User: Fold this.
Amino acid sequence: MKKIAFGLLVLLSNLSMAQENTDVNKETKFQVGVHYVGNLRNENIISDGFNGVVGISANYAVYQDDMISVFGGLNIDYLQTRDLFLQNDILIWNPNASIEINAFKGKLRPFFGLGYAFFSNDFEYENVIFDPSDPAFMTREKKLSFNGFTINPGMKYHLSDLLFIEGSYKYFAVNSNDIDGTANTHFIYLGLGFKF
Assistant:
């Protein structure tokens, strides 16, 4: 997985360098990126049960001027199970809206995003009545669904008109109708993006 992420980073940077020789500064509406997902430990089933691996993002600018850009987008993050409670890897789907502000009148720009994320996972358990040799003793499976709002502040550094790097933090309050309580999860993102 690390080789794939590295290959994507090299491909994006080569595409950006190949395009930088044009003198036309056209407005870009789409942003596509790949990022590392750091899952910070917080003593709950999501934080302790999964390792962050990689994610992708896609954004479309619904409004742009010299000072602000407003985006609608989708992030998909892949987390690998530590096989503690939830046994399968997960994809977290996170539709979101964000605003990027040219506060420093330069290449470094803060952004702030709000979204709603969701994922599901299969939970396996043994059903025992009395005798382990009884046919009632078998593995059962139940699909558990999780969802919640996300808050995502961060910074983008625009290397060129076509390439940027970013770092951000995401808070995801994970709820489920299948399990009591809320899991407050915290992710750190470091990534590279391409604008077109």
Observations:
- The longest helix spans residues 2-19.
- Helices lie at 2-19.
- Confidence is low (pLDDT under 50) at residues 18-24.
- The two ends are 26 Å apart (CA to CA).
